[in-house]
Amino acid sequence: MTWDYFISILIPMLEGSKMTILLFLIAIVLSIPLGFLLTLAVKSSFKTLSWLAQIYIYVMRGTPLLLQLLIICFGLPMIPGIGQYLVLDRFVAACLGFVLNYAAYFAEIFRGGLLAIDKGQYEAAKVLGLNKWQTMTRIVVPQMFRIALPSLANESVTLVKDTALLYAVAVPELLHFAQTAVNRDFTIMPFFVAGAIYLVMTLLLTLFFKWIERRYTFE
Amino acid sequence: MAIIEISKLKKSFGSLDVLKQITFDVNKNDVVAVIGPSGSGKSTMLRSLVHLETIEGGSISVDGDYLVKDGVYPKQQDIKQITSKMGMVFQHFNLFPHLTVKENLEVAPRLLKRESLAVISKRSDELLEKIGLANFSNTHPAKLSGGQKQRVAIARALMLNPEILLFDEPTSALDPELTGEVLQVMKDLAEEHMTMIVVTHEMGFAKEVANRVVFMDNGEIVESGSPTEFFENPQFDRTKAFLRRNLK
């Protein structure tokens, strides 16, 4: 394998990585806040809302992400009557699928974080005269985030790898270009290059989370 | 002059009556030690004063205002107004682990916005000086010993200038060699005439610092009096038995 060949497959794959990274960023930026709102909905004293949120989380975690993506991309347009208005751009549809799915996972992570906070924290805040909003924003959420960080990091690494599912809904991303090169040139080298690019991405992400964890260690 | 009046306080958890018609007054500048076996309802009584427990019957008045009257609470805003006159120190400190010592002291006054930041910062420095932890203002609670944590918790409660300070077993979670430093801070407060109600197992503190001892057992007040009367001449068998077990 020549250097020129290596560069010739690397460039489209890096081009495809842009899509991978873009999807990752959109998914993480939107699903974390949405996940937190879901957690609040689950904890809500308004029972109907709590039940709806729990059912949502159950469905999203209980079915394959690939199936959800296929339904959003190909299933929605087939709904009689309204289907014609539900034809989304493939990438937009994929983003939607990832956000909806990952929000459910993040919701469970945050719920775990909330459960780990001692009730004495709420009592101290109450006795000190903090209202519910202040208690939540100043006392509970910062601690919840710190507790949730390792799990958030873990889930984010999974998200990087899950972006490969774009392949199934024919959005050209990293894996798509690797597969194209493999088919065209009859060599498995592009797969290893793709693997290396994923490893670089997950390494950077892991280092980033380690840095945040260190920064928010309260000792 | 009574600053807290408690009358016929009643509460139950399911079929268990934890408070049965508790009645007693606390005068301004009193240091009241509440003692008794575990499960006697003393913590529940204390927590009901700052509305961490809701009671089912009876009345509590603070400074002449009813926190609850015949089992009926006023509106949220009034409850907050009345409980704000009291500070509370917990058995397990309940410091905020993500905030530094100084931030722990300042978080509530800053959010309540009654005073300028400069005034708040000056007071937190003074209080840290007073409890001997001035060098720890930027430390997180995880780095402190139990005794240091509890001293910080006391300073945090004092930041809001409470008229009354409540202590819920403040030394029970500490190693024996660390209780002294906390009791010393409490003793200093007593000498400054802070009104205090202290639920405690420290008989020494009850004897030396308190001017009144209340003995609770099984959801009722069995006996109360000055430390001398109480320890030297207990009137009731239950008190005598408790003291025999705990004064060795």
Automatic annotation (TrEMBL), chain A:
The ABC transmembrane type-1 domain extends over 17-209
Subcellular compartments: Cell membrane
Q: How does it sit in the membrane?
A: Multi-pass membrane protein
Q: Could you cite one Gene Ontology molecular function of this protein?
A: transmembrane transporter activity
Keyword field? Amino-acid transport, Cell membrane, Membrane, Transmembrane, Transmembrane helix, Transport
- Cellular-component GO terms for this entry: ATP-binding cassette (ABC) transporter complex
Instruction: Please give the Pfam families that the UniProt record associates with this protein.
Output: BPD_transp_1 (PF00528)
The UniProt entry, under CDD domains, shows:
TM_PBP2 (cd06261)
Record-annotated membrane-spanning stretches: 20-43, 55-79, 91-110, 188-209
Give the residue range of the signal peptide.
Answer: none
Name its GO BP terms in alphabetical order: amino acid transport
Family named by the database record? Belongs to the binding-protein-dependent transport system permease family.
- What protein am I looking at? Amino acid ABC transporter membrane protein (PAAT family)
From TrEMBL, chain B:
- A Pfam family this protein belongs to? ABC_tran
Keyword Protein biosynthesis applies: no
Q: Where is the ABC transporter domain?
A: 4-243
Checking PROSITE patterns in the record gives: ABC_TRANSPORTER_1, ABC_TRANSPORTER_2
| Entry's Gene Ontology molecular function annotations | ABC-type amino acid transporter activity; ATP binding; ATP hydrolysis activity
Q: Which UniProt keywords apply?
A: ATP-binding, Nucleotide-binding, Transport
The protein's matches in InterPro entries, at most eight in alphabetical order, are given as: AAA+_ATPase, ABC_ATPase_HisP-typ, ABC_transporter-like_ATP-bd, ABC_transporter-like_CS, MetN_ABC_transporter-like, P-loop_NTPase
Q: Which CDD domains match?
A: ABC_HisP_GlnQ (cd03262)
Give me the segments passing through the membrane. none
- The source's domain of life comes to Bacteria
Does 4Fe-4S count among this protein's keywords?
Answer: no
The family classification in the record reads: Belongs to the ABC transporter superfamily.
Name listed for the protein in its UniProt record: Amino acid ABC transporter ATP-binding protein (PAAT family)
Task: Write down the species.
Answer: Psychrobacillus insolitus
